[in-house]
Write a structure and sequence with these properties.
Distance between the termini: 63 Å
Oligomer: single chain
Strand order of the largest sheet: 14-15-16-13-12-18-19
Radius of gyration: 24 Å
Shape: globular
Bound molecules: nicotinamide-adenine-dinucleotide
Largest sheet: 7 strands, mixed
Number of domains: 2
Number of strands: 22
Helix content: 25-40%
CATH class of the largest domain: Alpha Beta
Length: about 500
């Protein structure tokens, strides 16, 4: 395995031409067509080329996959294995992901258009790290004994739920799958993974690699298909004990409804965001803040749930900050995702590109000032590219400040006091992440506590570690991915109460 990204575009283009595209669902240890034979076009946003026809799973496939996953769970072949044995399998899976790093990176980039450097150095290694982390963790977490009186022992166990449906989006396909499958499998559940229809490829390979690593057949099923066809029947299925979802707030709400209409399955939701980065007048490093502002929105073409899509900047430092922000942004150009020099790639598909362009129109129409970008970019015939775009003179009531664009569009908003900044930062339905740039430690603490978000960074943006939890407040969802806390949501607590017969004082056996 190469430790750093291969620098030649020709290497990746050759791999892109040669890589085998997985096209079928992965059920009970084997690749299978969708029942009824339906398929959908898997289109590469790099050039609009159809990569393959992929199985379009529907309700019949969901029934089959859930039945297999449930049978595997009930058999105990995984759910009752010792934590140490589960750990060994997950560590082998992490190692296999590392061994297949180039293949998985090229599939990810072909499928969703992100730069190959990001796929190779971010997505795939972090997916492997996540599986490794949960493998390593699971033989180190203890159950509890409650502090009852001497006439009883109450043992508190964490038990796996059963079949967990993991429904994930297209922006970090393998990484999101790993965030769900890692802790769900570590705790002994069976998992039915539904990747987004825009990016099914690495999920299918994950299923195959898991079996190669020793995961029993049926414990991880993978169903490519769209939301209404495959996601909905999973949400409504009476034998699915939990849905762990990452995606839009709109679809997150549907899963709550599906749960209410079916078996009251548990639901964990990682949804959208409209994250503010607040630049205070006592920011100690405006250059770092400007760089974080640019990359906070332009990394992954802005297709990031916690993208820093609102910059709140104090009047006193506004001019200097904007000058630095525009200078950094001028260096970020859309390019060929298969070229390792490219840092900004293609939008995932035509639909998403059109959606982002319509938000750019709304920014212009509602009176924001376009400072840079605002147009489609020409990179490759048939591909879907947009220029990094910055609007200034935005008010928080404009559509581009309120709705999640999920693209490379930054809204800059002025403020004049700390209180104003907190009010505007919190004036959103979302609460995923935020950042505060200040040298004043009192202010940093005060604002970090006042902003309603699941993660607040101080003097940095989008920093993280698998050991630190991630997830939102408000309509950004509930439940946490990453860290040991993620294990909690894939288990139920069981108390086993044992009454003890009091022995007579002085009696001995
Ligand atoms: P989406 O909500 O459209 O789709 C997410 C998943 O839900 C996909 O697998 C899709 O097929 C499925 N789905 C769609 N409609 C469905 C329906 N009617 N019933 C059941 N399932 C359905 O989101 P997307 O466009 O794939 O991804 C972008 C969204 O994901 C953004 O809103 C982004 O903020 C969010 N996201 C959140 C996080 C986080 O951790 N909070 C991380 C990444 C992405």
């Amino acid at each position: 395995m190469a430790a750093t990204v291969t620098t030649s575009a020709s290497h990746w283009k050759k791999l892109a031409a040669e890589v085998e595209i997985p096209t079928r669902a992965f059920i009970d240890g084997g690749l299978v067509e969708a029942q009824g034979g339906g398929t959908f076009d898997c289109v590469s946003p790099i050039d609009g080329r159809i990569l393959a026809q992929v199985a379009a799973c529907g309700a019949a496939d969901v029934n089959r996959a859930v039945a297999g996953a449930r049978a595997a769970f009930d058999s105990g072949i995984w759910s009752r294995r010792s934590p140490k044995q589960r750990k060994a399998v997950l560590l082998r899976l992490a190692a296999l992901i590392d061994q297949h790093r180039e293949e998985l990176a090229i599939l990810e980039t072909l499928d969703m258009g992100k730069p190959i450097t990001d796929s190779f150095t971010v997505d795939i290694p972090l997916a492997s790290e996540c599986i490794q982390y949960y493998g390593e963790s699971i033989d180190k977490v203890y159950d509890e004994i409650a502090p009852t009186g001497p006439d009883a022992v109450s043992m508190i166990y964490r038990e796996p739920l059963g079949v967990v449906a993991a429904v994930v989006p297209w922006n970090f396909p393998l990484m999101m799958a790993a965030w769900k499958a890692g802790p769900a499998l570590a705790t002994g559940n069976s998992v039915v993974l539904k990747p987004a229809e825009q990016s099914p490829l690495t999920a299918i390979r994950l299923g195959q690699l898991a079996v190669e690593a020793g995961l029993p057949e049926g414990v991880l099923q993978v169903l490519p298909g769209d939301g209404p066809g495959a996601g909905r029947p999973l949400g409504l299925h009476p034998d699915v004990a939990m849905v762990t979802f990452t995606g839009s707030t709109e679809v997150g709400k549907l899963f709550l409804r599906y749960a209410g209409e079916s078996n009251m399955k548990r639901v964990a939701l990682e949804c959208g965001g409209k994250s503010p980065q607040v630049i205070l007048p006592d920011c100690g490093d405006l250059e770092a803040a400007a760089s974080a502002a640019a990359w906070g929105i332009f990394f992954n073409q802005g297709e990031v749930c916690n993208a820093g899509s609102r910059i709140l900047v104090h009047h006193d430092v506004k001019e200097e900050f904007m000058e630095r922000l525009l200078r950094t942004t001028a260096e970020i150009r859309p390019g060929d995702p298969l070229d390792p020099g490219t840092r900004f790639g293609a939008m995932v598909d035509k639909t998403q590109m059109d959606r982002v362009m319509s938000y750019i129109d709304s920014g212009r129409d509602e009176g924001a000032e376009l400072r840079v970008g605002g147009a489609a970019a020409e990179v490759a015939d048939g591909g879907f590219y947009i220029e990094p775009t910055i609007f200034d003179k935005v008010t928080n009531s404009m559509t581009i400040a309120r709705e999640e664009i999920f693209g490379p569009v930054l809204a800059t908003i002025d403020f004049s006091s700390e209180e104003d900044a907190v009010t505007v930062a919190n004036d959103t339905i979302y609460g995923l992440t935020a950042s505060v740039w200040t040298e004043n430690i009192d202010r940093a603490h005060r604002m970090a506590r006042a902003i309603r978000a699941g993660v607040v960074w101080v003097n940095t943006f989008d920093a993280g570690d698998i050991a630190s939890p991630f997830g939102g407040f408000k309509e950004s969802g509930f439940g946490r991915d990453k860290s040991l806390h993620a294990l909690e949501k894939y288990t139920d607590l069981k108390a086993v109460w044992i009454g003890l017969r009091a022995s007579a004082p002085g009696a001995s056996a």
